Sequence to fold (333 residues):
Amino acid sequence: MLRAPAMGSFPQIRPRRLRRTEGLRRLVREHTLAPERLVYPMFCVPGSGVREPIQSMPGIFRQSPDLCAELAHEASSLGLGGVLLFGVPTQKDATGSSGRDPEGLVPQAIRAIRKAAPELPVVTDVCLCDYTDHGHCGVLTPEGEVRNDATLPLLVEQALTHARAGADVVAPSDMMDGRVGAIRRGLDEAGFSHVAILSYAVKYASAFYGPFREAAHNAPARGDRRGYQMDPANAREALREVELDLDEGADMVMVKPAIAYLDVVRQLRDRLDVPVFAYNVSGEYSMVRAAAQAGFLDGQRAMMESLTSIQRAGADGIVTYFALEAAKALVGS
Ligand code: PBG
Fold:
């Protein structure tokens, strides 16, 4: 009598069968990127018709509000999830007052984008560092320490300035304790209970922000950000930061950077019911670009693999400088 061949192992079982053609691979693919999962960051500078290349971020520009609006229109046509705005003003001072100017760069850009792409969600970065002459994310003591509690009302005012101009979501990235609660109260009291908060709850003190410092001219003049951003060695602390921000009223949370912290993204996704975002930061972008320019790897494939890995780790949304390019590739494919 013939014995039934043992099933459940080679040679009957061959995982390669499902990898044989693109059609089969596509059929069994677990994660598919979509443009609506991607948010495109933009750097706004004064003027009109201004477009300045950022040397450390090939393909990314600082641009005036009118050109931000043009790009937002393109982003919207490609089906992107939204845009994230940063102001890069020429006027900077000790308290970052240009960030609270109702006629400032971000409010101007929001209004222009609202006209050019009415449906596109507009997220704004809320932080002092783009607007302070010392480059820190809060106001300083005479000794140069960042003052947590004194910074909070300034962040609230900046968030309100964005809300009044029409932002859908404000995204505080400063890492001051208590800022989510302060911003939520400030928005609610001023009649902006409909404006959502995406908290950069888990923001590490990372070397991967390097290129952004050139893009936004926000390198700290003295010291670094390790006194308020998280230690890269800590993952449990990420959960604590997130719990606090959710208690204070955050609607969504973000992990930043993304690729070096995918374990944290996964842990948050497994434990939370709110949307979890990941920020594929400037250094993560520029590494791929630079390696591709040098001919060391295929830039397009590395881009897609990076974004797919962030989604696979559990991110619901990805903030990425690749957003436009990735969306074009996805729409075209
Ligand atoms: C400002 C801010 C930074 C980034 C986003 N918001 C810089 C920093 O904290 O040093 C970094 C983004 C990037 O590197 O792409 N607080």
